Amino acid sequence: MKKLLFLLLLSPLFLLAQSNQKIMLQVLGSGGPEMNDKRASSSYLIWIDGKSRILIDFGSGASLRFEESDANIEELDMILLTHLHIDHTADLPALLKAGFFTNIKKVLPLYGPYGNSTMPDTKTFIRRLFEDHKGAWQYMGDHLGGKADLQLSAHNVEYSREVQTLLAENNISVEAVSVHHGMIPAIAYRVNIGNKSLTFSGDMNGEFHTLEKLAKGTDILIMHNAVPQTATGTAALLHMTPQTIGEIAQKAQPGTVILSHRMSRTLDKELETISEIRKSYKGKVKFADDGSTFLLL
């Protein structure tokens, strides 16, 4: 960890953090795992002073959106995975392979959740994808401790219902907390840049009551609107209803709530969604689309 922090300290991301930055959130993928919603799956990009620095999730279709945004793999300083479902991770092999055709020379840290009997931990997940002689894409194994110019370094975020700090250097910090996504290990992240912050719920149903602690007073809170108020069964076990979104937002009091991970069961139900949220939360609420940008000054 000390070596990683030292590398990040020398990176342009942390050098930029010492000045007044223009910070922008770009939604690369605003949809879910469906193929009928005309959206890429979940993915977000944080820009700092015009540089594409921090990637949160990278689901199917996100690689095309990344290209369309004019983002640059060489500028990335970290990847944060909320959980390891396909619609949040599917395009990682495409990103790693594309890095081969750039001038990138760095260790790119990737953070993701712990494992359990249902899902592998993040280190194991990445190893199973790329490990030399064993991985699904074993020809990419040189990117995990080999001689490739781009090295992917995976780190597990351990289970904790208390907010933990993953990185804290030169006005940049990344905090995390476990959230409830059924049997799937899942993490919410807060990225603090100077006096600004962005918080990402990932997929969750609110049962742990941890997101409101992590997101308290954040400038932007990205929450996933994957199910309608009438959701029951597995859908409600995995995702927040609009009522829960409103209750969490009321406790966290963010500057703006952005609703993403919009699936066919919530698309065209914006009025009903807002109506439920407004029962608890009266602040700003915006709906995300692929390519949506939100500026923090």
From TrEMBL:
Name of the featured protein: MBL fold metallo-hydrolase
Keywords, comma-separated and alphabetical: Hydrolase, Signal
Entry-linked SMART domains: Lactamase_B
Signal peptide: 1-17
The keyword Repressor appears for this protein: no
Gene source species: Sulfurovum indicum
Residue span, Metallo-beta-lactamase domain: 40-261
Gene3D superfamilies linked: Ribonuclease Z/Hydroxyacylglutathione hydrolase-like
InterPro entries to which the protein is assigned, alphabetical: AtsA-like_MBL-fold, Metallo-B-lactamas, RibonucZ/Hydroxyglut_hydro
Pfam families for this protein: Lactamase_B_2
